[in-house]
Please model this.
Amino acid sequence: MKPIFFLSAFFSALSIFLLQSVSPLVAQETIRKAFLAGTLKNSNNAPVNFASAQIVETKEGRLSDKNGQFLIASVTQGTVTLRIKQNSYEIVEQIVELRIGDTTRIDLTLYPKVVTLKEAVVGASAFTTGEIKGVTLRPLDVVTTPGAAADIFRALQTFPGVANADDGSTLIVRGGDANETVSLLDQATIVHPYRYESPSGGAFGTIPPFFVSGTMFTSGGFPARYGNALSGVLAMESQNIPMQDALSLNLGMFGASVGVNWAAIPDKLGIRFSGNRTDIRLILAVNGAADEFPTPPASYDANLSVVFKYSASGKFKLFNYATQDELGVKIHRPAYGSEVDAVYRNSSLNRIHSLQWSDLLDDWLLKASVSWNAYSGDRSLGQLTIKPADNTYKWRFDAEKDLSENFRLLVGQEVERTEYSLTGRTPAQGRIYDPNATVLYPIDAHLGANRWGGYAEVETKFARQWLLGAGVRADYHTIAQQLVFDPRVSLRYAMDEFWNIRASWGVYHQFPQIDQFNSVTGNPLLQAQQAQHYILGVDYQEGDWLFRVEAFSKQYDAMVIRSLATNLGNLSNGYARGVDVFLKYGAYLVTPISGWISYSYLTAQRLQTRDVATELLYETAPAAYDLTNNFTVVLKNEILPRFTGGFTFRYGTGAPVTPIVGGAKMPDGSYQPIEGAVSSERLADYIRLDLSFSYFYPFATKHSAVFFASINDVTNEIRTLGYNYSTDYSVRTPRQSTVRRTLVVGAMLSLGL
Amino acid sequence: MQLSFKTLVVTAVAVIALFNAASIQVFAQEETIIKGKKMLQLGENRNDAKTLTEAQTYFEGLVKTQITAPQKALMHYYAGYAGYRLANTTTNDDQRDAFLDNAMQHLETCVELDKNFSDGFALLSGIYGRKSTGMMSAMKYGPKAGTAGETAFKLDPKNPRALIVSATSLFFRPAMFGGDKKKAVEQWQRAAQILDDTSAKETAQPTWGHEEAYAWLGQAFADEGNADAARAAYDRALEINPDYGWVKNVLYPKLAKK
Model:
């Protein structure tokens, strides 16, 4: 036992010695520090863990533990600021006094954060797509919308506030005309957003969905950064740098396409190329409508985009796109001098080139772009030939910075130069189809205009549950020689994490289309048209559910309509009022069932013209797109693993039409129409059901194929689009849709390289 | 039958000797594994392929010794874990794939040998997750990762490493494939909490993840724009493991740059 006792005594002595030697050091170390001990609780008196407690001046900090407690040992003393941050709670800052060698104790209560400026869209009526948090729909939801033919515009038509007016893709927003909605891509204005363009819109969107990484569509109450639009904005962002090489091939009854993604220098330089040929001859043949199209609708397009990332935050995006389309369609027994069918022919070339730079410098998010949109068209109907062409050059700069957690500043400026020409020839009215017509008026109009715009906005979280967005923009137009100011305000009250009340008010100006300024058929003295938006809504978003209801009122003023004295004048006014409801559940391939329901109620009146032979009367009547009820259901279901089926059902009240009740014979033998009361009749209600099925087949790790089939317009509805009249307007025949039920099948092959 | 005193004494001595031998063997195995784990930790701290390869070779050698199936499973686990960490040491996609494939083989064998080993399923889920780099591979490995992860949780609902792996997948997966950053943070916090409450004593069983949970939390906080919390989380990670190279040399400097 003795040796053990000896060893034990030795180690005890050594321990005491060491302790005595070290203790003063430990004590000194402790004394040199000031301690800050705290307990964090929420409003329910429960401890808050994983909150950061930091002394702002020294950046010394700790995370709170499961009891909500923290202890900071600081080397400083005196008055300091303690900042408590936890993502689910509002930030708390507290002044505390620290003393070396002492422990300061503090108990704090944290209140739940219901909304942050970072994630919030302040205003009302916005629908977003993309792969970021909080979007309404993902790109995959958009392109898989049955009946949308993978077209962004057609998919957007399923949202509330956008009318189910016809089979085209035109965005008719809350009772406004097609040109009241502006389309943007990477800040560039897409002057002609539709293919197979007509005065009332077009059949498809110009920009294919696979070029786009995200969109923001707003049907009203939009902020000051968007200008020269009365009703809506569709802002699209082109695809970012490709992460890997890939080849895609698409073959169907509508044509074929090829796409190449090349990650030339991974995460630095990427190139995307695509080519597409659309030709629906086969669809028309299969579905028995080929005779209606002497030149079947066909189009080519090609895209080359380059993304160069020169730093972690900075990049250049070069986007080039050209699309050419042509079409020849029979017009049955048209008025203006023909007792036989005629053919309307249209071909166009639309090119978009844009170079965008973006970077984050000194916490400013900066974006600048230069773009050029060139369009030329060739349209003919009988002896009437017109060739419109325009070139739009644009510079745009946007800058935004979060000046604090609760305050954001946005400023920007743009210059848009439009050069327009219209050439062609027109015979005297009434002799459009007469091959021997000698009275041909040449058309040769050229116009150029600049629009200068600038804006400033602030977005602020001014109270725990309140967000405010306020801004003003100014625009000046060189032909109108008018400077307009648009103040806009949005307010959002977050009732809790899921429910919000939103209100927006704003003044919106839009200058007339440039061709309306021509001195022969237009009026160079036209001024900006104006609308005022008032919106109040409630929305709810939790997990897979999204619900929104909004009431709106849009007051129009100085709208351009025909005038006997000046061809056109800012003479019209009116309003559009209504309620939009939106309910969405799930997401494609994420939940077994996904879809959404939209309902809109609308009443819209405008001061309009009424032709009574050589007289022009003015009447306030339902607007052209006063479509009282719009109802859409989109439903998708993963029936079997990777096999999905879905449908879109659309209903819309028939559009108002002004009937022609007779014709007045003119001295040259032609007839002038005598219209009945404006909008005194309506077309039949629009009803359409589309089905689609797809099967996704992945193979050999990196490759996949998608096989798809769709039946559009299942009920084969005979749809009246308007009326044709005999030469003397005594006989009226309905103009009906030429393409009804169609079957489309195809496959898309994607090869990872 | 009557036992003589001598017989009793001899028997007792034999039993004691046998017991001691077994204890010594168990002790020796635990020491052997802890030695390997230290190599792994060193390799991980330095993100050093050489040390991690040595650790992997070490555990692959132990697999070949005369041990029980669950013990073999554990050796495969650590050999696979070394491969999982080796994948972080390269930027070459092919090399990274090779490391992950090797790790996958070890872990698939591991869970085959011990079907009740929650940590084995958790790590296998993480490896499948890291193999899901594109849409096609996600179609192949995504469901496998999900099944392995679910099994890990079924076997041990409080397994902190299963929580870390699951959270990492949730954080980086696109929302369209079920990614959820908020849920990921919750899972990392739960893992950190569990490991805060767990004894720091080194054993033969998997113990990794404590500092890593805080490192991930720090990244999530930084991603949310909460630099204060990110810094505090990194501080906590370094408090747990002062030599943790990922935080010390990569994450902290990255945060400081912001």
